[in-house]
Design brief:
By secondary structure, this protein is mainly β. The longest helix is centred in the N-terminal third of the chain and has 18 residues, at about 1-20. Helix content is about 10%, strand content about 55%.
Length: about 230
C-alpha cells in the first residue's frame, strides 16, 4: 500500500504540474482536442491490486482470517464510443494475486495456514460514463461484468487440504465498478482509476471429507478486490 500511495502522490504531482495553471486559466491550451471524436481507439494498462475473499459460513464463530497481498496487473484496452459520453470497453488483463488464509483451532502451522496464489486472466466488458470535458480533465465512472480464468486453481488435483492442497474453481464471474479521471497530455491520454471487483459465484472446491475443518463450514467463497489501474491511450 505504501508503494501505491507513493505512486498516487507522484501522479497527482505530475498532474498538478501539467494542468495546475491551465485548468484555471481563462483560455487553457487544449491537448488532443479531437481525441474523443474517434469511434474506436486502443490502449494498455498497468497497475496494482489487492485480492481477498468474502467468506460466508454455515455456522458463525469459526472465522477464517483472510489477508490479501499487493499484486500486479497488466492488460490491453479496446474502446468503442457509443455516443459522446458513453463507451463500451473490453479490457483483457493478467492479474497476479496472493492471499494468506489463517484457520482457527489448529496447533500445527502447516494445517492452520494456506497461501493461495492466483494468476488470473480476466475478460471484462465495461461501460464507461464520462462527464463533460473541462480543459484537459474529464472524470468518469466505469462498471460492468467479467469472466475470469484462474490458471492456479488446482481444480483438477485429487489432493485436498488434508495434503495441504487448497482448491478453487477454474472459471468465475464478477461485477466491477469504479471511477477515474482522464488527463489529456500533449501526445497521449492518461487515465488512473480505482475499481472494486466482487465475485458473483462460490469459488471453493470442497474437500472429500464433508466435515473437513477447512471447507466443511464454508457456505460460499467469493473474490473481492481493489484495483488501481494506470491506463495509457
Amino acid at each position: 500500500m505504501k508503494r501505491i500511495l507513493a505512486l498516487l502522490f507522484l501522479i497527482s504531482t505530475a498532474a498538478h504540474a501539467q494542468f495546475g495553471k491551465s485548468m484555471f486559466a481563462k483560455d487553457p491550451i487544449i491537448n488532443l482536442e479531437n481525441f474523443d471524436k474517434q469511434r474506436v481507439y486502443w490502449g494498455y494498462f498497468l497497475g496494482f491490486s489487492n485480492f481477498d475473499y468474502k467468506v460466508d459460513y454455515k455456522i458463525p464463530g469459526q472465522d477464517i482470517n483472510v489477508v490479501g497481498n499487493t499484486g500486479f496487473n497488466v492488460g490491453l484496452v479496446g474502446a468503442l464510443r457509443l455516443q459522446e459520453y458513453i463507451e463500451l470497453r473490453f479490457e483483457p488483463g493478467l492479474y497476479y494475486a496472493s492471499r494468506t488464509l489463517t484457520y482457527q483451532g489448529f496447533t500445527n502451522e502447516l494445517d492452520a495456514l494456506r497461501e493461495v496464489k492466483s494468476t488470473y486472466i480476466d475478460f471484462p466488458l465495461l461501460l464507461k460514463f464520462s462527464s463533460l470535458r473541462t480543459g484537459n480533465v474529464r472524470p468518469y465512472l466505469v462498471g460492468g461484468v467479467s469472466t475470469t480464468l484462474n490458471l492456479s486453481s488446482n481444480a483438477k488435483s485429487k489432493d485436498d487440504n488434508s495434503e495441504q492442497r487448497f482448491r478453487v474453481k477454474t472459471w468465475t464471474q464478477n461485477y466491477t465498478f469504479g471511477f477515474g479521471i482522464d488527463l489529456y497530455f500533449e501526445y497521449f491520454k492518461f487515465s488512473p482509476s480505482i475499481r472494486g471487483v466482487f465475485g458473483m459465484n462460490d469459488e471453493l472446491i470442497r474437500d472429500d471429507d464433508p466435515n473437513s475443518p477447512w471447507t466443511g463450514n464454508i457456505e460460499a467463497f467469493k473474490t473481492r478486490a481493489v484495483l488501481i489501474n494506470f491506463t495509457f491511450h
